Amino acid sequence: MSGSPESATPGVFTRSADLYDTIYRFKDYPAEAERVHELIAARRGPGAPATLLDVACGTGKHLEQLARWYGVEGLDLDPNLLAVAAARLPGVPLHQGDMTGFDLGRTFGAVVTLFSSIGYVRTEARLRRAVACLAAHLAPGGVLVVEPWFQPGAYLTGRPHALFVDEPDLKLVRMNASAIEGHLSVLEFHYLLATGAGVSHFTERHELALFTAEQYAAAFAAAGLAVEVDPDGLTGRGLFIGTWAPGAPRPTSPDAGPDAGPDAGP
Ligand SMILES: C[S@@+](CC[C@H](N)C(=O)[O-])C[C@H]1O[C@@H](n2cnc3c(N)ncnc32)[C@H](O)[C@@H]1O
Q1: From the CB of 11, is ligand 1 less than 6 Å away?
Q2: Does domain 17-151+210-244 have CATH number 3.90.226.10?
Q3: Which residue CA neighbors atom 27 of ligand 1 most closely?
Q4: In terms of CB atoms within 10 Å, which end of the chain has fewer, N or C?
Q5: Distance, CA of 241 to CA of 232 (rounded, Å)
């Protein structure tokens, strides 16, 4: 295991940070950012600033695009991914932090958490803390966009997966067999990497919770947000979109101390 379910997952991409953009080169970040902007623009209140915080920003490829419309900032747990983002985005404020307990001391017209990063929180208690933190960083009239991980039943176990990179100076294969342990999907990635320096093998264990739509919606409601569901979203995984519920009190940060109380579990 990579730690108690109540602790932050350590930087799971730390070993592969330099490979991240190569591995995920199939993703159409410009098109995804366009769609995210359309969704925000249709909902952002007139007083909300044209600023955006990308939480779990990874290497900053959405931020790079979203900077066309917003003053952007990013936050991620993993310092190695943030280093890649910093090289890509000179002058953009980037923060190291855990989405379940951060406080930047200011608010944004939009907050986004994309590419299923929310699944890494692993427990429902931490999901609620994360959504409360995201909501607390929204200015009045702001919009929260969360791209979820798979829901229970949609993630199939016992399937082999492989991703191949074949470039002149870099050969890479990343393989795993899908597995489920309790409410967690477990992706034990095996990397085999060839460069001019030689061939190396390493593994990374990724654990993402299979939260239900009801659990996501309840976390938004508990944070004081009205929630809409876009079943298709950016990549077929759907989107949860939050706006301040009419008459609801301003969302507030959760207690940033140690996790409070036992996790109800999914
Ligand atoms: C699949 S990557 C997505 C990165 C980026 N949003 C993208 O679309 O390329 C998941 C990201 O979640 C980050 N992450 C995982 N747990 C986190 C946490 N508790 N707080 C902040 N970031 C976290 C990882 O470091 C990683 O950058």
Answers
A1: yes
A2: no
A3: 58
A4: N
A5: 12
pLDDT on residue 246: 63
> What is the β-pairing status of strands 198-209 and 184-195?
antiparallel
Predicted confidence at residue 39, as pLDDT, reads 97
58 touches ligand 1 (CB under 6 Å): yes
Cβ of 117 below 6 Å from ligand 1: yes
The total of other beta-carbon atoms located within 10 Å of residue 35's CB is: 18
Answer whether 0.90 is exceeded by the pTM.
Answer: yes
> 233: closest CA among 22, 5, 38?
38
Q: What are the boundaries of each domain within the chain?
A: 17-151+210-244, 171-208
User: Within the chain, which residues score under 50 in pLDDT?
Assistant: 1-7, 9, 256-266
- The separation between CA 94 and the C-alpha centre of its own chain, rounded to angstroms, equals 15
